[in-house]
TrEMBL record:
Its cofactor is Fe(2+). GO terms for molecular function: dioxygenase activity. This is 2-oxoadipate dioxygenase/decarboxylase. The keyword DNA damage does not apply. It comes from Mycolicibacterium rutilum. It is an enzyme of class 1 (oxidoreductase). Its EC number is 1.13.11.93. Belongs to the 2-oxoadipate dioxygenase/decarboxylase family.
Amino acid sequence: MSRQVEAWQLRAQFAAQLSRMYGAEVPAYTTLVEVAAAVNRDHAAATPDAERLGSLDRVTAERHGAIRVGSPGELADVADLFAAFGMYPVGFYDLRDAASPVPVVSTAFRPIDSEELARNPFRVFTSMLATADARFFSADLRSRVERFVEARRLFDPELLAEARRIAADGGAEAERAERFVAAAVSAFALSREPIDRTWYDELSAVSAVAADIAGVTSTHINHLTPRVLDIDELYGRMTERGITMIDAIQGPPRTAGPAVLLRQTSFRALAEPRRFREPDGAVVDGTLRVRFGEVEARGVALTREGRARYDAAMAAPDPAAVWDQHFPDSDAAMAAQGLAYYHGGDPTKPVVYEDFLPASAAGIFRSNLDTEAQATNAEDASDYSMGWMSERLGHHIHDPYELYEKAAQ
């Protein structure tokens, strides 16, 4: 009898194979991974406590992915698929109200306990098109988008059925596991099907993200994100290699005190070859610029009190200039003031922030697009919330603070 492949091993295989596929589709991503690994090695060699937020092996192997779907039904299918990999929905993110609005609401699928995160922390930020928001979608466009999404099939029903079986069993024997992971990876490959130019352009006028979600008949990996220990150093090295980075690093400023939450940046989305069907039926070659290479540096998870201080600091014109008015400069003081989570309350053992920041996500989405989302003055009568999403998913959405509290204890 062949050995049982456990959920965390499936997750590790899934992350590695997605990474290989995405590297073949977006070659600059491979450069990003190589530079991140080199920065991590150099930083670890030069910094005595470099591994305080995770071992070098874990940090270098770590990825998060991002995908986009068009409806609650598609999001529920994603939840069923990822459950087989031991990845569960955590948190609710509303990107519609960011400074650069994006018409999506999101959650992240990830492992939820410390041991599983240590084995393999792969997470997928998953956005759903907010078609019920009248500021972005007129009643007519909403009904046409929803009909289009309803008519497509992102995942083979047999793949989803197998995912549910594997989730229930907590794994699968080796040959079955191999087939399942390969099928799951291929579901996120970039489609070569021709895109209806008129429909795609109509959605692009609302938002480039809306077009990327509902202007095509499939989903795909939008970006994969390696983790780096010194994101400022990485930004410089990528620029030296001639790769155009976005204008800034999103998230908290670099300070002398403990790194908190999440800092992210990316290279600019590249023009990728896609095929289009013109109004006269002709199929022509063209390009789209929607996929990019993101990279992140993770810090300590903040408590609710710490997060309130973070939001106050980030509301200032220059957050770095006021940072020390909101945060002390040591882990010991952060722990004593109840601003961040530490294992057993020990300030030498920070609990890593495993989640995302909606303002940063929206900022990176926006910085990689040619056009802003066009929100009108219509009233938003939609009721998107964590409770709403949990009900539609048929899965409990975990509260990140409760998970950090548990990890700290």
